Amino acid sequence: xxxxxxxxxxxxxxxxxxxxxxxxxxxxxxxxxxxxLVCQPDSPLRTELATTPRVRFVSAHHQLAGHxxxxxxxxxxxxxxxxxxxxxxxLRLMKTPYLITRRVDTPVKRKIxxxxxxxxxxRCVALSRAIAKEIQPLCPExxxxxxxxxxxxxxxxxxxxxxxxxxxxxxxxxxxxxxxxRHKGQRVLLDAARRLQxxxxxxxxxxxxxxxxxxxxxxxxxxxxxVIWAGFQPDIGNYLPxxxxxxxxxxxxxxxxxxxxxxxxxxxxxxxxxxxxPDIVHHGETGLLFPxxxxxxxxRQLVRLRDNALRQALAHNATEHLAEYTPEAMANSYMAIxxxxxxxxID
Length: 347
Description:
CATH superfamily of the largest domain: Glycogen Phosphorylase B
Shape: elongated
Number of helices: 15
Strand content: 15-25%
CATH topology of the largest domain: Rossmann fold
Order of helices and strands: EHEHEHEHEHEHEHEHHEHEEHEHEHHH
Oligomer: single chain
């Protein structure tokens, strides 16, 4: 079985991390002869997968490029929006069926091309119930739900300890994500920080990441002495164990795989009740939820999480649910779809 993965993103965010995790997990499968990744010539995916066996790379600056070099395969797996267009063209050129994974819960524009791309897909996959509901009207077959996987992090606990000792006696509320407020909602967390700075002065809000809103967010929080900006950390797994709570105030979110990483680190989470997040965070069981955009409600939940017994219970319950979010579980689910195509051809 030869699978072509297409991911034409220029950066490296959650979707690209999940593409890497899947390709790595599939590399161990005897049924997979080899995998091809169609990506940008300078894509960080190349570095991430450089040592993964039986993976070759094909460069594509845009949707029209790389088709001849990729050749025929069992299936094309489109991992981002531009890759969906690429996969549809590859079907026309090489007669190779394709699978779409939709990772975001924003509406798909109902233009003719998108309707065509989804209609002609062999199968469509959604990360969450919210995404499945959004794309089902476009898909002739039932949408399959396959959630993201956590990253198998091996944290350097010395880094976490060193970071923690920089802020003795503080209750650390951490957030990690692209600093883009319209998506990740950092202003909601800043609102909570503003509300709690006097009533709970030991609470320190730590923001990891970078992005287009970085400068303006720093300016808006300059008067808050309970906020620090820790920058982008490629090894964020080393810092998660230092936190008392992980806060995720997204305004829209397909699933929020970083929540899985926080849970794996044993850190209780509080997150917006939006998109696919409730698929992971079951309120009062594996974490706490609050209405999206409501800084006052977030502040109340953070105060609740000062209860050590509650934090321990939520973290324990979250860990118990992680078995269904392993890279191997994700690979098993995709293998079932790849294999169903092979069986369909035999029949």
